[in-house]
Design a protein that fits this description.
Rossmann fold; globular; 7-stranded mixed beta sheet; alpha/beta
Length: 191
Amino acid sequence: MAQTSVSELDRRVQVFLDKRRGTWRDLNVPEADGRLLHNMILEHRFTRALEIGTSTGHSGIWIAWALSKTGGKLLTIEIDPARHREALANFKEAGLSTYVDARLGDAHQLVPALPGPFDFVFSDADKEWYTNYFAAVWPKVSSSGCFTAHNVASARQRGIREFLAHLKTIRNGTTTIDRSSSAGISITCKS
């Protein structure tokens, strides 16, 4: 099978995203947040990405699309078998399967066991575990890498207030909150 050129892949991904625009449900990020993740990866030339909480693959498509341009790969974890199957089909239809290692399993066990290193992490799983995920992965984030987390705009959501308070204690990182969408994404980069 011939290698798809980047421009062909770009067209394929864009057609897929255009076809699905406005239809992403089931715990997926809005387009503005997917675009933010994509642009961050390109800007920093990240290549080793981890996503905690695949859902049906919308954010993973944006991440993997950027990684296809930087020569990287996404490792993504989903606990729900039906969402995992749908994500695999979406990655394939978008033409991004070769840039994704999609694992079915419990991130509570899998994330601490991952060897790393990672230069980009996106957490969008159970919010009350964000602090635990951060603690498990931050030591494995490369010196110029970033840990991002979704749905941080509402401190009323269980676990978010504690997570944001924890980020303020990190001495070797700086956190900003992006509000491109109402969900909000925290971006903590090593300094």
